[in-house]
Amino acid sequence: MKKLLPIVLAAALALGAFMPMLAEATDPMAKYAETVKLTTAKSIGDSLQSFIDKKPDVLTDNIWFNDYRNLFNIDVAYSWTAPSAQYREKMNTQIAANDLPDFFQVDASQLKMLVEYGAAADLTDVFAKYASPFTNEMMEADMRVGLGQSTFGGKLMALPSVGGNRDGSVFWWIRYDWLEKLELKEPETFGEMLETLYAFTNNDPDGNGKDDTVGLGMVKEFITDTFGINALSEGLGAYITGWVGKDGAVEAGTIQPEVKKALETLAKLYADGVLDREFIVKDSSKVAEEVVSGKIGMFSGGHAQAFWPLQDAKNANLDSNWRAISIVSDNGEKPKTMLDGSASNFYAVNVDCEDPEAVVKLYNYYYAKDPALSPDFDFHYHGRLDADPESEITEYYNWAAIASWYPMQNLFIHRGVDSYFNDGDESALENYWIMDNINGNQKYMDGDTSYWSTFGWSGPSDYSGEGRIDYYDKNGMFIQNAYIGAATDSMTLYNVTLEQLRLETFTKIITGESSIDEFDNYIAQWKKLGGDTITQEVNDALK
Amino acid sequence: MPGTRAFLRRWARHNWQLYALALPSLACVLLFSYAPMYGVLLAFKNFNPRVGIMGSQWVGMKYFRQFFSTSIVWTTIKNTVILSLYSLVASFPVPIIFALLLNQVKRGKRFIQTITYAPNFISTVVLVSMIVLFLAPSSGFLTKALLSMGMRDALVLVRPEYFRTLYIVSGIWQSMGFSAILYIAALTGVNPELHESAMIDGADIVRRIWHIDIPAILPTIVIMLILAIGGILSVGYEKVYLMQNGMNLSVSEVISTYVFKTGIQNAQYSFATAVGIFNSVVNLLLLVAANSAARRAAQTSLF
Question: What's the number of domains chain A is made of?
Answer without folding.
Answer: 3
